[in-house]
């Protein structure tokens, strides 16, 4: 490309807005890793992208040089206020992470496994009865919303409301509809406030309930969390808790549909499913828009990033970096170690990693147990830049 950005005479190295197929981005990222591992694009106001594993890890870990407090996603999403913990750098961010980590640790969320599996069976039933459908739209999205509702202990009507507004919010971002983003965000804030008020009136175990844990932290005499930040944290969790599993599950199901041998192996030995989930997370990390802003001029991957410029961390590319992963494009159930970056790295590593793994394991386990074969049944339609995964994934399901 020959266009320049920001008046700097800097040519764009790639176009992140180009239409994608299920496989095309991996070819693009492989080419960038070889010839231009930290490319510049003038899309979305201009930003750098880290495509190699070592550069992504460096950006994620060095909060002093690469801040999350200014612009933490590409494109820069309008917001009415900062939403913890994503919009805060350490050490301030730790005030919000502590009550989240307490209720999202593996020993706490594993109690949800039976409910997640039941939700998966119920949502999968109509697709099995019809012999297939759009797995992304008809299963992955409502399942992610249902699991999030189970985690927060919400009633069914609230689940449906969150699902509707969450879909509107994510699609508005994908279409760069600022008015739509702001309107949906305000609706989500209203829901978050109502949830917080419900917990204030009817508190639950703060070692198991996220909102009660945040409210307990708001009363900490040494480092209290302001009430509006409790609401903002719940608001932030609503979006992340639905969007990422939706995208990752769609990708995982498409991959399985294209690999009958893998399906048969996992059906014969369900004990291999956790290893498969780790590889699917590596191959199809659902986010590539998380960004940091340089606090000073810094060299990254042979390029000079100026203070105030944004750097997106391309997790799907880093997870296929040939310098770190042998046969990086192949799903290897025996891959050890598997230090993938699907959940990020450093202070802002995803607090919901354990819950996401449980969601995926339950969903894919039910899909394999309920079928003798899963096959592609039409063209996969990808989300655009915002999320990495299928917006539509038609699959044929052969019931067992």
Automatic annotation (TrEMBL):
The keyword Iron applies. InterPro entries: Cyt_P450, Cyt_P450_B, Cyt_P450_CS, Cyt_P450_sf. It holds the Pfam family p450. Keywords: Heme, Iron, Metal-binding, Monooxygenase, Oxidoreductase. Residues 1-20 are annotated as: Disordered. The keyword Iron applies. Belongs to the cytochrome P450 family. This is Cytochrome P450. It comes from Microbispora hainanensis.
């Amino acid at each position: 490309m020959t266009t320049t950005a920001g008046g700097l005479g800097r040519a764009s190295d790639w176009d992140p807005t180009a239409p994608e197929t299920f496989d095309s981005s991996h070819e693009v990222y492989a080419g960038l890793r070889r010839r231009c591992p930290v490319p510049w694009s003038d899309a979305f106001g201009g930003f750098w992208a880290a495509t190699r594993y070592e550069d992504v890890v460096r950006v994620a870990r060095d909060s002093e040089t690469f801040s999350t407090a200014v612009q933490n996603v590409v494109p820069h999403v309008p917001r009415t206020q900062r939403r913890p913990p994503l919009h805060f750098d350490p050490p301030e961010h730790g005030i919000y992470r502590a009550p989240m980590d307490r209720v999202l640790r593996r020993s706490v969320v594993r109690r949800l496994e039976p409910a997640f599996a039941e939700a998966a069976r119920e949502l999968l039933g109509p697709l099995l009865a019809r012999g297939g459908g759009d797995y992304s739209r008809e299963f992955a999205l409502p399942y992610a919303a249902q699991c999030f509702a189970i985690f927060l202990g919400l009633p069914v009507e609230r689940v449906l409301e969150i699902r509707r507004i969450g879909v509107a919010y994510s699609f508005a971002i994908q279409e760069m509809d600022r008015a739509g983003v702001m309107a949906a965000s305000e609706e989500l804030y209203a829901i978050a406030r109502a949830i917080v008020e419900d917990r204030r009136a009817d508190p639950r175990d703060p070692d198991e309930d996220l909102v009660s844990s945040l409210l307990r932290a708001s009363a900490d005499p040494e480092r209290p969390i302001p009430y509006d930040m409790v609401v903002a944290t719940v608001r932030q969790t609503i979006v992340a808790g639905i969007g990422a599993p939706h995208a990752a599950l769609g990708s995982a199901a498409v991959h399985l549909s294209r690999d009958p041998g893998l399906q048969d192996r996992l059906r014969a030995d369900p004990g291999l499913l956790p290893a498969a989930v780790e590889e699917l997370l590596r191959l199809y990390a659902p986010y590539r828009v998380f960004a940091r802003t340089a606090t000073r001029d810094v060299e990254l991957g042979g390029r000079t990033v100026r203070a105030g410029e944004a750097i997106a961390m391309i997790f799907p590319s880093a997870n296929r970096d040939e310098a770190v992963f042998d046969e990086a494009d192949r799903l290897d159930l025996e891959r050890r170690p598997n230090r993938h970056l699907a959940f990020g790295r450093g202070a802002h590593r995803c607090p919901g990693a354990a819950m996401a793994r449980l969601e995926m394991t339950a969903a894919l386990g039910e899909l394999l147990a309920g079928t003798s074969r899963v096959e592609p049944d039409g063209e996969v339609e990808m989300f655009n830049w915002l999320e990495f995964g299928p917006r539509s994934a038609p699959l044929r399901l052969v019931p067992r």
